[in-house]
Write a structure and sequence with these properties.
- With about 350 residues, this protein is α/β, with parallel strands linked by helices.
- It is about 25% helix and about 30% strand.
- The chain has eleven helices and 19 strands.
- Helix 7 links the parallel strand 10 (about 160-165) and strand 11.
């Protein structure tokens, strides 16, 4: 558990408050003095109320009378307290009202899973032009944090904490930032691609028999809020060897579609027709069998691996996702998510 605290003297403006809330990412701040004594708290809800009431002074936003509990309170009692009060966080203080830590209901209830998450973070990001000239694509910042950190958090928040990063271009930038993962509450191993191996080839460099259960493979440029538990359950229950996440999309042709027969007779006109189709989200679940068909240390992309698995009579499935998803592979998409 972390303290999620900020000193009152560092909060000069409304923007300072927003930045601190965004940094911790849990919708909660504990405000303390120089002696770490709890002054009050600020939540996302307090920010919304302040905006509705057109208040931006920090002192007008802080809740000076929050619920607190002794830091010696057993975790089971903390959980019961938060469920009864319908809250997600409670500051834990000592006899002198010094903040010792903040208890998060999500931390208590989160089930930890042993499935690995393999993130393909070795791409050049050439479609992003100058943006990735000096930095690997997964390390491009979105609202103050690398895109790769958002991917990690989306899994960690659902109880997946074992990661393998497959890296190549500017790999030292990723390593220096994430190191072994301890500061993020996870573990990270690295696979180094001497040459670019595509979205699947690096899987052949991972030690044989590494995976005893289904594992995720995720492109390093996609951000989503998928329910990964459902994805693993689907893979297990359907006895699939490989699962590709897909999402229904639609495209409206801005022009009229002209339909005619082989004799060039006009058949019909379709004004601005809409085509509905499913796209590959760059999020997969595989089992060890699929890795066995990969050529060693050769360029191979994930769609080709799925087709190869199908030709080898492995069970290949698709999982239709409805959650939000975005591929940050081109400048327009990157700018879109920056403003989202």
């Amino acid at each position: 558990m972390r303290d999620y605290k900020v000193n009152i003297d560092s909060l000069k403006t409304f923007e300072d408050l927003i930045r601190k809330l965004d940094f911790y990412g849990i919708g909660f701040l504990a405000i303390v003095d120089d002696e770490d004594k709890l002054i009050g708290i600020v939540t996302d809800g307090d920010i919304r109320k302040a905006l509705l009431n057109q208040k931006k002074a920090v002192e007008d936003i802080i809740n000076y009378k929050p619920f607190t509990l002794p830091y010696t309170t057993p975790a089971s009692q903390l959980k019961s307290f938060l469920e009864e009060k319908r809250r997600l966080h409670v500051p834990l203080v000592d006899e002198e009202n010094r903040l010792r830590e903040v208890f998060l209901l999500n931390d208590f209830t989160r089930e930890i899973h042993s499935n690995y998450v393999v993130i393909m973070a070795g791409g050049l990001g050439s479609r992003l032009g100058e943006l990735t000239k000096e930095i690997p694509k997964p390390m491009l910042h979105v609202k103050g944090k690398p895109m790769l950190e958002y991917i990690v958090e989306s899994f960690k928040n659902q109880g997946f904490n074992k990661f393998i990063f497959c890296v190549n271009f500017k790999k030292e930038i990723i390593q220096d930032y994430f190191q072994d993962g301890k500061k993020f509450g996870i573990s990270i191993e690295y696979i180094f691609e001497e040459t670019r191996l595509g979205t699947a080839g690096a899987l052949s460099l991972i030690a044989d028999h590494k995976f005893n259960e289904p594992f995720f493979v995720v492109n390093g440029d996609v951000i989503s809020n998928l329910d990964y538990h459902h994805l693993i359950d689907f893979c297990t229950n359907s006895k699939a060897d490989a699962v590709m996440c897909v999402k229904e999309m639609s495209y409206t042709n801005p022009y009229a579609e002209v339909v005619f027969d082989e004799d060039l007779n006009l058949v019909s006109l379709k004004e601005k027709p809409t085509k509905v189709f499913d796209i590959n989200l760059g999020i997969y679940v595989l089992n060890e069998k699929v890795r066995e068909i990969l050529p060693k240390n050769k360029f191979f992309d994930m769609p080709s691996l799925f087709l190869e698995a199908k030709e080898n009579d492995l069970s290949v499935k698709v999982f239709r996702a409805n959650e939000d998803w975005m591929d940050i592979g081109i400048p327009t998409d990157y700018r879109t998510i920056q403003n989202d």
